[in-house]
Specification:
The complex is a heterodimer of chains A (262) and B (311). By secondary structure, chain A is an alpha/beta fold. Chain A has helices spanning 52-59, 91-98, 116-128, 132-145, 161-173, 191-206, 218-224, 242-247, 252-261; strands spanning 14-23, 26-36, 41-45, 67-72, 75-76, 79-82, 85-88, 101-104, 179-183, 210-214, 227-232, 235-240. Classes of the chains: A alpha/beta (262), B mainly alpha (311).
Chain lengths: 262, 311
């Protein structure tokens, strides 16, 4: 990715400054500032409608921001800066920007007409031009990593929710992303299946992956998160280490929210 | 335990269902009467049916019918996909034009449309290809060429496109937003997402009604006499019956041919539907079950070793 990467080590992975997002008259994000360092796990929490998911979708430009600046790895998402004027990127260039940002959805969104293995090799072979043999080898390794090495020929409809979400994580990892976004990855799962997905995510965090996770799992945020961001009404109300925010919240809204979920 | 009979297997006396038997017997008896009545009724003139069922004029007519069906469906589907995409774009002009097309072509009888296309040559006797108000590149005198076959295909295709557009649009809309979103998030561009992710899933919804349209088109070709094209199956049978004054057996000849072609199409549709329903069932396919059984039979639970269940 071409960018102004002068100090790649110190440059944050995600840098959002005064980000706004409007859908017509609906003002969803009202000036978000967020910095996620390399290798950091940031957990976004907050009541529904607070804009967490919208922010996540803006990070990989599934939604186009309407104000502020949002950089991923030094590259401005969705726009090109020319002088002091911004130019919208062509969809093809935007697609290229997304290639190394993995995303995992609440509803898994696996491709139901493809087996687990086909789901994983689809993007590497079609988008990156990786050879089929190489992509298959990588995919098998990834399936083993998420504990599903015996499911490569299985269609998503034949898998449990937890297994589907693990395949979805493997699918995102197959593009060798530098950043992984998780949109409430365990919210659609039966309670006994949540653990297997969180275990995979913990392992991923330990391997040094930079992650932004929208979640209601406070236990996961406390154990794995480096940063906890509490959002409400389209703004970041409070951010800090999970320990600080969870045990010693400063804001009234944070206290009230935590009293309901903890 | 050994002497108390098998507790794990219920060997119950099945419930008697006399109603089913009575209904089946009554229906079969009525059918037999119908067939017997038709076979022994001289007014059906079965000897004429046998004489003309493999007549070369009839089989030539069937070939024309198949050709008209093929071209009309082909262009109907292509134009239908274009119209569907136009209706799904965000361009209001394209949307409105596609809507207007549907409004006109679904709102008027296909017979009327075919008559119109037959009269097209009297509206535009000459076709001139070139730059408006500029030089002419090509010039065609339509009235000079035998255009009945062309206009029959065109008329049916334009009408069909309106129905196909709605079928394709319903198919594309049936694929959830999450699918194209997941593909987009993986960095797949719009065209690739459409081709690899959305359309293959839309096909499952598109194929059954398209099969119906194809079968319906085969029969609608009997209206091409409106253009007028008279070399198709129905009109050939009709012409022979006009000469020999025996309409009933020749109607049955045409019906038999339509039925035979439709049957072949239905078999094709079955296999197409099967092809595009992959991943829809929670049940495992035979191949998957075999692979699983082999894995279990080998080392107990060794299915995962060495790259899984490779064949």
């Amino acid at each position: 990715m071409t960018s102004v990467a002068k100090q790649p080590e110190t440059q944050p992975m995600v840098q959002a400054t005064a980000v706004h997002k409007r859908f017509g008259h609906l003002h969803v994000l009202r000036g978000i500032d967020l910095t996620v360092a390399r290798g950091e796990v940031a957990c976004l929490v907050g009541p529904s409608g607070s804009g967490k998911t919208t922010l996540l979708r803006c990070i990989n430009h599934l939604e186009q921001i309407t104000g502020g600046r949002l950089y991923v790895d030094g590259a401005l998402m969705g726009y090109r800066e020319r002088g002091d004027k911004l130019h919208e990127l062509h969809p093809r260039e935007a697609a290229k920007q997304r290639q190394d940002i993995g995303m995992v959805f609440q509803q898994f969104n696996l491709f139901p007409h493809m087996t687990a293995l086909q789901n994983i090799i689809e993007a590497p072979t079609r988008v990156k031009g990786t050879s089929r043999a190489e992509a298959t080898e990588t995919a098998r390794a990834l399936l083993a990593r998420v504990g599903l090495e015996d499911k490569e020929r299985t269609y998503p409809g034949q898998l449990s929710g937890g297994q589907q979400q693990r395949v979805a994580i493997a699918r995102a990892l197959a593009m060798q992303p530098k950043l992984m976004l998780f949109d409430e990855p365990t919210s659609a799962l039966d309670p006994e299946l949540v653990g297997e997905v969180l275990d995979v995510m913990k392992q991923l965090a330990q391997d040094g992956m930079t992650m932004v996770v929208v979640t209601h799992e406070m236990g996961f945020a406390r154990e794995v998160g480096d940063q906890l961001v509490f959002m409400d009404g389209g703004v970041v109300v409070e951010a800090g280490t999970p320990e600080d925010v969870l045990t010693n919240p400063q804001e009234v809204r944070t206290k009230s929210f935590l009293s309901k979920v903890l | 335990m050994a002497g108390s009979g098998r507790q794990d297997f219920i060997d119950a006396v099945p419930l008697r269902r006399p109603g089913r038997w009575i209904a089946a017997v009554v229906i079969l008896a009525l059918l037999a009467l119908l067939v017997y009545g038709a076979a022994t009724n001289d007014n059906y003139q079965w000897e004429t049916y046998r004489k003309y069922i493999f007549d070369s004029r009839i089989s030539a007519g069937a070939w024309v019918t198949i050709q008209v069906t093929f071209w009309a469906m082909l262009f109907g589907i292509v134009l239908g996909v274009i119209l569907a995409v136009m209706r799904l774009t965000r361009n209001p002009v394209l949307q409105a034009v596609a809507w207007g097309y549907l409004w006109i072509f679904r709102g008027t009888p296909v017979y009327v449309q075919l008559v119109f296309w037959g009269l097209f040559t009297s509206l535009y006797p000459h076709l001139r290809f070139g730059v408006p108000w500029g030089p002419t590149i090509a010039h065609i005198d339509i009235q000079a060429v035998d255009a009945a076959f062309f206009f029959a295909c065109l008329g049916l295709a334009l009408n069909e496109a309106a129905y196909m557009a709605e079928i394709v649009r319903a198919g594309i809309s049936s694929v959830g937003d999450g699918q194209s979103e997941a593909a987009t998030a993986l960095g797949m561009p719009w065209g690739l997402t459409m081709r690899r992710i959305v359309l293959p899933q839309a096909m499952r919804v598109i194929i059954p009604p398209t099969g119906n349209e194809l079968i319906s088109m085969l029969k609608t070709t009997s209206l091409v006499t409106a253009v007028p094209l008279t070399s198709d199956l129905y009109n050939q049978a009709h012409q022979i019956s006009g000469v020999v004054f025996r309409p009933v057996p020749l109607l049955l000849v045409a019906a038999t041919w339509y039925l035979a072609i439709t049957s072949v199409l239905m078999v094709g549709q079955y296999f197409l539907e099967k092809r595009f329903s992959r991943g829809q069932s929670r049940k495992m396919t035979n191949r998957q079950l075999q692979a699983l059984a082999r894995g279990l039979g080998g080392t107990g639970h060794g299915a995962g070793e060495g790259g899984g269940v490779g064949v």
